[in-house]
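**User:**
Everyone, produce one record:

**Assistant:**
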Amino acid sequence: DGTAANDKASGGATHTVQGHGYDVVLMYDNPLGMMEGLNIFGGYSWIDQVSDARESYGWGAKYAVGGLTVGYQATTDSNPAADSIIDAYDNQAYGVSFNINDNLSVSYGAHKSTQEKNGLANVDLETKSAQIAYTLGGAAIKIAETDVENKAYGASDINGTLIGVTLAF
């Protein structure tokens, strides 16, 4: 009956949202032939639903050279719901990874999302994570240490360590 549709869809008997929208994404590798390994991208999305319009846009870049990869991305999702006190989400994320050799890699990533509210104080949610992975043939050991501040845009924090061992047969 369409009750489990995602953010940009509606379904059957219980939903009667009408409207239209479009998405545009541009990606460009090695701009102007200046930097092999550089990829820049940007996108825009607009959805007009009878009672409101939703707009999202973002841009970013990724650069890879040798075993090093660095990336950054910024996005904004405005007017996520017409009946909400939330006006927009502004997001910034970056990451860096390095393959030390064929078997060992390390990486770090961070994400900050600001929930902008109409007439109320904005709330920041921040996530930071460091990872290390060692693979040998079909076996892998992976460790990730993650810290989240203001989870779910609330006042609580959460920290965790993940240790994974996988075997491929």
Notes: The two ends are 41 Å apart (CA to CA). The mean pLDDT is 87.
